[in-house]
Amino acid sequence: MNTIKYKILGFCICLFLVSNTQAQKKKTVIQPASYSVEGNITGLEDGTEVKLIPGATHLSESAVAETTIKDGKFTFTGKLNEPRLFYVSFGKNKGVIPVLIENSKIKLTAEAEVLKDQNERINFKNEIISGSKSHDYYKKEIAFREELNNDYVAYHKGTEEVAAAYGKARTSGNKKLMDSIGNSPEWKSFEAKEKAFFTKVQSSSENLITKHKATWWGPFFMMTQYSYFTPDQKPVFEQFSEIAKKSYYGQLVDKDLNPTSLIGTSVTNFGLKDKNGKAYNVKDIVTGKKYILIDFWASWCGPCRKEIPNLKTAYSTYSEKGFEILSISIDKDDKAWLKALGMENMPWHNLLDDDKVSKAFNVKTIPATYLVDSKGVIISDNLRGAALEEKLKDLLKS
């Protein structure tokens, strides 16, 4: 009887082991060692260029692969250590489709329309990207942007006339009219709504990043949510796990937040334009000056705006002793820059960056300041507030 019992028990154990082994085999999924992106785009001519360009790097990247369309189709293949964002660019950057690529078989379909009256810009609709779980997750996590877009349109609605009037007054230099419009109930209401909007944008971005502090998604979202960093973002980076910091995007964020020092290097001559479109050569601005503070800022940069009163104090105290300031805005929105100039009223040269100058200075975070001597050599950087005051006091004490 016991023999029969043990045989039955042994048979059951065998069944369990076989079943468990089969279950484990089913659970074991072999991940592809490479990726393929198969595109099928209607509306584009054979021979149209297609490029694969790295995204979320804060740099103007070169394509890592190029091909052409034939019968609406194209293919890219390669290998990645971890998922990466790429821009599939068509027809010499006339239109792009962002894709988060991972090692899998990815399919991209879309309908393209070449807009002849807009310099042949390519517009896409009915885009479908399948085969990338990372892309699916990315789209889900940034869905809140649609709500923000609706909020942006909503708070601008009905402000067209007052905005146009303010812009006209600013362009003509009519400060009295600018102040009058700026103090009107309509403008005050607009500014309040604008402030609430940008507070919501900041909160949404910070929540998205913090949610993913344990993985590469955290630094990735830092790169996509911020086009430039400020010192305020350093604590955000420090919250990340070591795995997140050592990821591809983690290393990019670290490099941007802690750029290589330029102290001891010489500044080459460059030219930029002011608010009136007048071109200035930097050598003409600084000729005869002992020390020049080159200040990179932007209208949307809170720490930059908070530093302006300190710059004004330093300028007032030391300008007659040979100190000069040159502010360079990295704003992409001319109107926002002009509005900020009108509000801040800085009594020194203010020029607009052309992307080349900020790159030459390796500007990764703002505010970014470089103190330059009369020979054009950078002698200090990132001087702000009391530190700038102390440095100038020591240099110009005679």
Mean pLDDT: 88
What is the global morphology? Answer: globular
> What is the number of helices?
15
Spatially, the strands of the biggest sheet line up as: 13-12-11-14-15
Number of domains: 3
Fraction of residues in helices? 40-55%
Helix and strand composition category: alpha+beta
Beta-strand segment tally? 15
Strand content: 15-25%
* Cα Rg: 28 Å
Full CATH superfamily name of the largest domain: Glutaredoxin
CATH architecture of the largest domain: 3-Layer(aba) Sandwich
Describe what this molecule looks like in 3D.
A 5-stranded mixed β-sheet has the order 13-12-11-14-15, covered by helices on one side. It has helices spanning 2-27, 133-141, 144-156, 160-172, 175-182, 185-211, 217-225, 234-238, 242-246, 248-257, 282-286, 302-318, 334-344, 356-360, 385-395, and strands at residues 35-42, 49-54, 65-68, 73-78, 84-90, 95-101, 105-115, 121-130, 271-273, 279-281, 291-297, 323-329, 349-352, 368-373, 378-381. Helices cover 44% and strands 23% of the residues. A hairpin with a 4-residue loop joins strand 14 (368-373) and strand 15. The chain folds into 3 domains: 35-132, Immunoglobulin-like, CATH 2.60.40.10; 142-211; 271-395, Glutaredoxin, CATH 3.40.30. Mean pLDDT is 88; it is low at 1-21. It is built from 15 helices and 15 strands. Helix 3 (144-156) packs antiparallel against helix 6 (185-211) and helix 12 (302-318) packs parallel to helix 15 (385-395). With 398 residues, it is of the alpha+beta class.
